[in-house]
Amino acid sequence: MSDVARLAGVNRVTASVALNGSSRAGTRVSDATRLRVIEAAKELGYTPNAIALALRGQRTNIIGYYSGYEFLDAHDPFNATILNGLQRRCQMHRQDLLIFGSYQRNSVEEVYASLVNGKIDGLILLPTPHSPVLDELLQSHLPVIAVANPVPNIASVTVDDITGSRLLAEYLAQKKHQRILYRADPGEHTSTTRRLEAFLEAAASFDMDVQVSRGEKNGRLRAEEIDILRTPQELRPTVIVSWVDSHAYMLLEELRELNIRVPDDIAVVGFDGIRLTPRPFCALTSIRAPWNEVAETAVDLLMMLIDGEKVEQETMLPVELAIGDTA
Q1: pLDDT for 269-326, tens place per residue?
Q2: Cα-flanking dihedrals φ and ψ of residue 94, to 5°?
Q3: Structural contact between residues 170 and 204, judged by C-beta atoms closer than 8 angstroms
Q4: Residue 317: exposed, middle, or buried by beta-carbon count in 10 A (0-12, 13-18, 19+)?
Q5: What angle do CA 114, 119, 123 make, to 5 degrees?
């Protein structure tokens, strides 16, 4: 700014007022002087310093997103939907989005320091089970909104996992299914624990026999699950409930390899209802959750927190049953 003022033949305050378009300490700038300062700034390639602007305005206009995983797979349908929603809403609020990643070499203190070092005004968090950084964030000044998995003492945006699981159980009861294999989340997130508990409660009311298994983290069948599927048809489950659609679609492929027909030999249902691209060979019966809206709502609420407003402890969005070809 001093260089711009010197080249334009004015003092620093006049140059600042001319470039910022506002008066300061009673300083008035004529159109001719303003033009001269602008030309000097162009000649010198002057741009305002982002850090200085943030210090002056107490805002960086940057929102962070932290998923807690070592690698954020942007090709994963759930991650892609959340990221698209975050970016779209950040654009509406004129905010930039900064994605954080952590790796095994980073300590809790290092991860926490990177989140609260002043680069961002607030954080959208996808909590993971037993994430140690949560305890640190609870004690911080940083505004935080959690998505998908509710966290005590942190405002959260979730979907109605309980109603979704009840809808699945009711639908399967209508289809006369009695023997069910429920493939639960191997990571036991708070949202998916809700799904399992709600489904078991609803299934019990319909006198369903439910076996619970936990597949591999990548969704592949474990050996004991394959053994269950190879039992005689009159003894094995008539439907498999998957805690998430991505694992359900992988299951459909494995069932084809085992020469088990869906839904003739066994039915399959999932949860999430995220549209896949390219479209799969069949439409999965699932609970459709508005994850795009979850992300957008999280940004809206985070902006309210940043502005000092209060928000609800949990904002829960409705889900619906989407009947496909698999059950």
Answers
A1: 999 998 776 666 789 999 999 999 999 999 999 999 999 999 999 999 999 999 999 9
A2: 60, 45
A3: no
A4: middle
A5: 75
Q: How many residues are recorded in the chain?
A: 327
C-alpha to C-alpha distance for 297 and 188, rounded to whole angstroms: 24
Q: How far apart are CA 37 and CA 149, in angstroms?
A: 52
> Could you tell me the domains of the chain?
2-48 (1.10.260.40), 62-159+293-316 (3.40.50.2300), 161-289 (3.40.50.2300)
Please give the structure tokens belonging to residue 123. 């954080």
Which stretch of DSSP H or E encloses residue 136?
Answer: helix 133-138
Nearest to 99 by CA among 306, 110, 82, 182: 82
Among residues 307, 295, 300, which one has the least CA distance to residue 83?
Answer: 295
Residue pair 100/119 in contact by the 8 Å Cβ criterion: no
Long-range CB contacts for residues 138-143, cutoff 8 Å, separation at least 24: 140/112, 140/115, 140/116, 141/116, 142/115, 142/116, 143/302, 143/305, 143/306
Query: Which stretches of 92-170 are assigned E, i.e. beta strand?
Result: 96-100, 122-125, 144-147, 156-159
Q: Considering the entire predicted model, what is its pTM?
A: 0.81
